Amino acid sequence: MAMKIRLARGGSKKRPFYRIVAADSRKPRDGRFIEKLGTYNPLLPKDNEQRVQMNMERVQYWLDQGAQPTDRIARMLEAAGTREKAERNNPNKGTPGKKAQERADEKAAKAAEAAEAANAPAEEAAAE
């Protein structure tokens, strides 16, 4: 069985609350799970200790059994200090989209033309 440690959403509309659960990866996100391992409340401030609560003994047990944490759970485990910080690299995240690049190219071209136009009268005056 492919096990995951993941978030199962609860709470009402626009008021999310998550359970940290060990579940079969083939089950739906909010469906049946094997064990509840903790809670995550994203509405609380980041420095509040009630924001993320985990039963670390059980989390470690499931990790030893081969359960794979999702990206968000892996970050929570890194913050708790039970997992080594993984190197993340997404070089395309900061690059602008096609339209933004086209606008930047047009702006650069206009700036170059304006610089040429400004330099042309100065060059003519220097030649005289």
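Above is the first protein from milestone M3; the second protein from the same milestone is given next.
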Amino acid sequence: MLKPLLVSLLACSVAAPALAAGLDANQAQARDIFSHLIAFKTEIGQGQVPVMAKYLADQFRAAGFPDSDIHIIPHGETATMVVRYRGTGKGGKPIALMAHMDVVTAKPEDWQRDPFKLTEENGYFYGRGTEDIKSGVTVLAANFIQLKKAGFVPTRDLIIVYTGDEETTQDTMDDLVKNHRDLVDAEFALNTDAGGGELSEDGKPLVFGLQTAEKAYADFELTTRNPGGHSSLPRADNAIYELADALKKVQAYQFPVMSNETTIASFKALGATTQGKVGQAMRDFAKDPHDAAAAAVLAAEPSEVGKTRTTCVATMLRGGHADNALPQSATANINCRVFPGVAIETVRQTLQEQVGPKVEVKLIGHAIASDASPLRPDVVAAVTKAVHSIRPGVAITPVQESGATDGIYFRAAGIPTYGVNGMFMKNSDSFAHGLNERVPVKSFYDDVAYWHVLLTTLAGPGTTK
């Protein structure tokens, strides 16, 4: 039943541009949407997220989505957008599909190319948001449009959830979950902003990571205070020295080793292909998460330590008020990435115990923690099918990421969430948040095809409950 649908899809488009050389109608349309999205300066302070949402709304309307299923929810200078693709309901509760419309600030004078113009060059698409994550916004929109025009009726509702401040406060996702749960409630969610495929430096596919857990983000301020005084009359209880002593205690402390279903499976899979002592440590840890020697080796690797424990690190420092005065206060920011299942307050209390009662430890802003999502057989099977449709035979492994995305809010609200970005990239090509951000052209078009397979597998014919 899917073959005629695919043939129909290849023949249709909504206001599609003239076909670029070598592109089919779907690819050309996705490229056109991608180009428009990159041009919106959806950085903080620019007020462009609602403008971009309006552009997307116009595309969905032109494809046949009714206004009643397209929601733009203002939130200060930004906004969220929710689009519902109505299904029969025979397949169960809806599936939510996630991406964010905002990007990290880009200074054009530092870039080699205009960051807000999609540039195709040497096999790459360049531009702010190409990787993080306007590619995800694009592939979801393109697939909704193409499927709608082809007459596809899913067996369950599919809900696109576009947030507007993932790179800053994440208030828009918090608002959606708390105040608009009826719009986004789902059996589970698929996140374009996590997971994905890894290519070797010679371009061979190595592994696909299916993200089932992520660490919580929390900032704490450590503050010391003192009456101060004249710098010509130094005293022993100096606020800056006391803060320095506290920071050395934080540096020396290691949080307890932890593991879960995801990290054990990940280390088992990665250990099979990783050479040297790190690979051996991965294999040993997967066999026995209480192996202290293996945990110590992994803790020494910046790319692996976050998978074995909560981590906290000093990131900012300020103190004193005049060159010729003793400091009256000194403050450091400690950024923590909290292992799933650990309460934020537990981390604060641990830091307080390490630095002692003379140092104030305070949570800055709000932080949210969540447990890992269970490995759903239907999601694993559908992701495996979709990945193999573009990269045959690649191993699929669960992963826990040390970064944080909007997905943590869904998990905390009881909606299991899975990072399933279909992009395959080399580690050396990842410039998200940095200069000259780019993605491989082939990987972008593969991602469009991957999401077609994933959506039609999870909500197509034969998926009724």
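Note on the second protein: Residues 211 and 291 are 24 Å apart (CA to CA).
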